[in-house]
Amino acid sequence: MTATATTAATTEAGDGTRPLTGKAALVTGGSRGIGRAIALRLAADGAAVALTYRNGQDRAEQVVKEIERAGGQAWAVRADCGDAEAVWASVAGTVDRFGRLDILVNNAGVGVIGPFEGISLDDVDRVLGTNVRAPFLAAQAAAAHLTEGGRIISIGSCMAERVAFPGGTLYATSKAALTGLTKTLARELGPRGITANLVHPGPIDTDMNPADGESAAMQAGFTALGAYGRASDVAATVAHLAGDGGRYITGASIAVDGGFAV
Ligand code: NDP
């Protein structure tokens, strides 16, 4: 589809049953796990969805096919979070493709868990590059295109604010940085009617943290519900923030963690 034709299709107002009809979203790391669930959910709610990946081209294309089979619009683009040019190009590409950008979801993330003193400089650069620098740059690039009603939603972690585990220094540091980014963006962009929020998942069954992994029982045991969550649980909260229900929520950190460490 051409950019022009797509623009026409995405500038109509919401159709009442699909609250994001007419909106365009960019989801980083949308090829699997939580990002995939968010991409599918935003598309089901009517948004045209661009999703980025690093290595998972086949998986990303499957997500696009799934959205298109359901009658939606989607586009997958390789954009390693460590590559600033690629991050900027993914934002520009979304606008070219869909004629607009309304919702940025900073989801892609990596974790390195291990004793503080053993964390290498490469690890520091890779984790902060993916989890902090890329969301910062993507938000900066997106802010140039977002208009009133625009949304920046970042995926943090319960390890940023709610709980501390030995071995989690680098990951927790990176996710805590998103609190500063989100709150300050809420202030800077609020006058333009743009919101910025943070969603903190607890243990969610994905490749990063499988529910049958070594520490899974321990993690589930820390939650009030005594269970892992699903990627779709996080996606439901992102969809709420992205839609009209999120109109008056900004600068917030919302836990989707089954009551982790309450
Ligand atoms: P997964 O490892 O299952 O998926 C990660 C996604 O991010 C993939 O789509 C992957 O793409 C992409 N990605 C990873 N690194 C890069 C990069 N450098 N550039 C571009 N894309 C990249 O993770 P989850 O779905 O579990 O996690 C999603 C987010 O949720 C992360 O920010 C994570 O920190 C956070 N989170 C997850 C929790 C959990 O329990 N699962 C708990 C708390 C927070 P590709 O397929 O190409 O590799």
Can you give keywords for this protein?
262 residues; Rossmann fold; 9 helices; binds NADPH dihydro-nicotinamide-adenine-dinucleotide phosphate; disordered N terminus; alpha/beta; seven-stranded parallel β-sheet; 44% helix
Number of domains: 1
Q: What ligand species are in this complex?
A: NADPH dihydro-nicotinamide-adenine-dinucleotide phosphate
Give the beta-strand count: 7
Distance between the termini: 49 Å
Q: For the record, what is the CATH homologous superfamily label?
A: NAD(P)-binding Rossmann-like Domain
Q: Taking all residues together, what is the mean pLDDT?
A: 93
The CATH class turns out to be Alpha Beta
* Beta-strand fraction estimate: 5-15%
**Helix share, percent:** 40-55%
Give the C-alpha Rg.
17 Å
Strand order of the largest sheet: 3-2-1-4-5-6-7
Helical/strand content category: alpha/beta
Give the SSE order as H and E letters: HEHEHEHEHEHHEHHE
Shape: globular
Examine the secondary-structure arrangement and name the CATH architecture.
Answer: 3-Layer(aba) Sandwich
Could you say what the CATH topology is called? Rossmann fold
The helix tally amounts to: 9
Major pleated sheet: 7 strands, parallel
Low-pLDDT segments: 1-13
What does this structure look like?
By secondary structure, the protein is α/β, with parallel strands linked by helices. It has one domain (3-254): Rossmann fold (3-Layer(aba) Sandwich). It is 44% helix and 13% strand. The chain has 9 helices and 7 strands. It has helices at 3-10, 33-44, 57-69, 84-98, 121-143, 158-161, 169-189, 216-222, 231-242; strands spanning 24-27, 48-53, 74-78, 103-106, 151-155, 195-201, 253-256. A 7-stranded parallel β-sheet has the order 3-2-1-4-5-6-7, with helices on both faces. The longest helix has 23 residues, at 121-143. The protein is globular, with a radius of gyration of 17 Å. The N and C termini lie far apart (49 Å). Residues 1-13 have low confidence and may be disordered. The site of NADPH dihydro-nicotinamide-adenine-dinucleotide phosphate (NDP) has 31 residues, from helix 2 and strand 2. Residues 1-11 have a biased composition (Low complexity). Pfam families: adh_short_C2 (PF13561). InterPro entries: KR_dom, NAD(P)-bd_dom_sf, SDR_fam. Belongs to the short-chain dehydrogenases/reductases (SDR) family.
